Amino acid sequence: MRKLHALPVALLATLALTACQDGTSTKDEGAAKPQLTSSAKATPTATATTATTAATGAKDKSSGTAANAKNGTSVAATNAKGQKSKAAKPTGPADPANRVSCNGSNTTVTAQPVPRPLNHMLITVRNTGSKYCDLTYFPVLRFDEMQWVPQPIEDSKPQAVTTLAPGESGYAGVVLSAADGSGEHGRTSHQLTVGFQGRTPNSSGGPSATPKLPAAGVYYDSSLAVTYWLRDMDQALSY
Fold this sequence. Notes:
Elements: H1 2-22, H2 29-32, H3 38-87, E1 99-101, E2 107-114, E3 120-127, E4 132-143, E5 151-152, E6 162-164, E7 169-175, E8 187-189, E9 192-197, E10 218-220, E11 225-226, H4 233-236
Parallel strand pairs: 1-4, 5-11
Antiparallel strand pairs: 2-3, 3-7, 4-6, 4-9, 7-11, 8-10
């Protein structure tokens, strides 16, 4: 009976020893060999990809900004060149670069008494220059060595400056004396100086003109007055 009980015990010991030698015993594999999850393995690659994308985007943005700046500079330069070219080629009286003041150096001036209306004289200014010229305000008249300036007829003031294209003429009418004889200090003059005003009242517009008067001279008195510069001859003689 004792042999029968000892046999199983010896058999169990042998089986246990065999299992250990074959490597089939239970092991704590998780503790011995930690495994990386798929998300953990992908993180370094994703980070590198994100960094590369960001760098590429920044480079593209920088290149685009530089290209836009270059294109903007080119457009601005082209526009500036076009504006300069346009400014260099004035086309009409509205362009300040093509307008100067009318004066004795770029016009011919005549002064001629007229039969109607009585006691009137017409001053004609013709633009002989190559640019448009402005007749501003009214002519400043001086007969002989007179010490006073004839006043303008305010009712004759035009709504805009009288501008003359090359070859065109402008006019001013002169009331020499009172038709009813009420004027004072009358005298006959043989010399006339016509002064031109600049852009502001009473400023100089350039050289004066000295048109010839009739050989018999021109009679004037204290009623002497002059119109503003006008484009129409009949209008200039209507005051």
